[in-house]
Specification:
Helices cover about 55% and strands about 10% of the residues. With about 500 residues, it is of the alpha+beta class. The protein has a domain of about 240 residues: Cytochrome P450 (Cytochrome p450), CATH 1.10.630. It is globular, with a radius of gyration of 24 Å.
């Protein structure tokens, strides 16, 4: 079966390739070559795709920047692209002239998530959805979630302890999924959650597979599971309407939204956006948390510094008997820097895609209508002009704010990540629990990155966890909790 599938894939690929080559012949002639940015377009159809995939993408893009400068053209995966790697050009594309560039994703991915999801849109519909998503992620909304997020994280970490090898990235994915469910549905009934989780896992697996609808393919299974997800969501929505409950979670705000004409969102639109948010929230956050574990493990000195910060809070909370407060999470300066530096080092969203909706001129160069534009976040984050000695993990660099538009782990402008504060909150709470209660050891290779498509430490960071020995904790408890009043000074 598997071999058969591979052969069919190759045939499909060849067919697309030939038809593409024929189309390309005609189109090529109209190119206004003289004003295009510098760069090489490589081979027909595959362009420079092979060069990109045969080496570290970091190095591929960095060499290009060295050779051609802040803006250059190339040809990747069948698209003519303009890459931008300077703060000014990124700001131009994402912020000041954002209306000239629309988000663009392969149709196969759009179909899996759902065409009405927020990130595929521009204009009024996008603005409306963005307000809804942002309101469920506002500081006020997040403050109300701190305790529940902490419970999810504490129980996830407890389940890992025992010294057996676990794949950190997988476990972090489970965790970020749970938080996503909490954000969207508040408390969700267990049977709904299980069905969502199982069907969503199938969608997730199909997302990066070859998009063929042939029977048995991962992509086809994913499309079928995606239909199941719509059914489950419709059931949840139906039950909620029956109960006439008005909850303040994301589903609640999507359900109660009306536009200027009084129109509500359709069930399809709601489903697409729920799947969209789950998707945007899960792997990104899981990847960031995995890197944090690695970077803390890599340097015992660094770990001690973070521990010292977190243990003060831990003791103040009666050695973990009280929940973390929102105010405490706002006051973890060292841990916060670890998060920022991890996001810079790992650059989880290495770049993003836009498409020019008209011919656009930038600094004398033409970006033709229909071309893709890719702001290269990772290259800016690893450019020694902006971040001294960029391969080095160095918390001190965040003692001053980075130069404007050089640090964009969450993007910028109209489509900037609305989940950034939630993601950071998860990372802060995770770090608090990790360093105050656990010890961990990375097993296997200590370096190397894999892309799936987000960068993750090799093999998802296989790790062993133990509950930290209780001497310190019992000592702490005795001091704070069980001691008779007269000994408290
Ligand atoms: C460390 C974790 C995360 C990273 C690095 C990250 C990064 C990003 C980036 C770079 C973008 C902009 C993409 C572009 O401009 O094309 C984005 C968009 C988005 N993110 Fe995140 N994200 C993270 C976590 C989350 C979480 C937890 C949520 C939701 C709870 C979320 C929801 C979204 C949504 C809905 C968008 C689309 C916004 C729009 O199109 O208007 N993200 N994210
Ligand atoms: C997917 O959801 C349906 C409900 O619509 C459920 O019956 C089915 O068991 C779920 N699939 C898996 C693999 O769990
Ligand atoms: C870390 O960064 C700071 C500020 O950029 C710099 O002064 C310091 O020398 C760096 N430390 C190391 C060990 O590279």
């Amino acid at each position: 079966m598997e071999k058969f599938e591979v052969i069919l894939c190759i045939i499909t690929l060849l067919l697309t390739l030939t038809s593409y080559l024929f189309r390309r012949k005609k189109k090529g002639e109209a190119c206004k070559r003289e004003r295009l940015p510098p760069g090489s377009m490589g081979w027909p159809y595959i362009g420079e795709t092979l060069q990109l995939y045969s080496q570290d993408p970091n190095v591929f893009f960095a060499n290009k920047v060295k050779r051609y400068g802040e803006i250059y053209k190339t040809h990747l995966l069948g698209c003519a692209c303009v890459m931008v790697a300077s703060p000014e050009a990124s700001r131009f594309v994402l912020v000041t002239q954002a209306h000239l560039f629309k988000p663009t994703y392969p149709a196969s991915k759009e179909n899996l998530i759902g065409k009405s999801a927020i990130f595929f849109h521009q204009g009024d519909y996008h603005t409306r959805l963005r307000k809804l998503v942002q309101s469920s992620l506002s500081p006020k909304a997040l403050r109300a979630l701190v305790a529940s997020i902490e419970d999810i994280i504490a129980s996830a970490l407890n389940s890992l302890a025992g010294g057996h090898v676990i794949t950190t990235f997988h476990e972090m994915k489970k965790l970020s999924f749970e938080v996503g469910i909490l954000l969207i549905f508040g408390q969700l009934e267990a049977h709904h959650k299980e069905e969502l989780k199982k069907n969503y896992t199938i969608v997730d697996r199909g997302y990066n597979s070859f998009p063929t609808k042939l029977p048995g393919s991962l992509y086809r299974k994913a499309l079928l599971a995606r239909n199941q997800l719509s059914k489950i969501l419709n059931e949840i929505i139906y039950e909620r309407k029956e109960k006439k409950s008005s909850q303040k979670d994301l589903l609640g705000s999507l359900l109660s939204s009306k536009d200027d004409k009084g129109e509500i969102l359709s069930e399809g639109q709601i489903a697409d956006n729920i799947i969209g948010v789950l998707f945007a929230a899960q792997d990104t956050t899981a990847s960031a948390m995995t890197w944090i574990l690695k970077y803390l493990y890599d340097d015992p000195q660094r770990l001690e510094t973070v521990k010292a910060e977190q243990e003060v809070i831990y003791k103040a909370n009666e050695v973990g008997n009280l929940h973390l407060t929102w105010a405490q999470t706002r006051n973890m300066p060292i841990t916060h820097k670890v998060i920022l530096e991890s996001l810079r080092m790992a650059s989880i969203i290495s770049f993003t895609f836009r498409e020019a909706v008209v011919d656009v001129e930038y600094n004398g160069y033409l970006i033709p209508k229909g071309w893709k534009i890719m702001p290269l976040f990772r290259n800016m984050h690893h450019n020694p002009q902006f971040f001294n000695d960029p391969q080095k993990f160095n918390l001190s660099r965040f003692e001053v704010a980075p130069k404007p538009n050089t640090f964009m782990p969450f993007g910028s402008g109209l489509h900037a990540c609305p989940g950034n504060e939630l993601a950071k909150l998860e990372m802060l709470i995770l770090t608090h629990h990790l360093v105050t209660k656990f010890r961990w050891e990375v097993v296997g290779p200590q370096s190397g990155t894999q892309y799936g498509p987000f960068p993750v430490p090799l093999h998802g960071l296989p790790t062993k966890f133990w509950k930290e020995s209780t001497t310190y904790r019992q000592h702490g408890r005795f001091l704070i909790k069980d001691a008779p009043p007269f000994s408290r000074t």
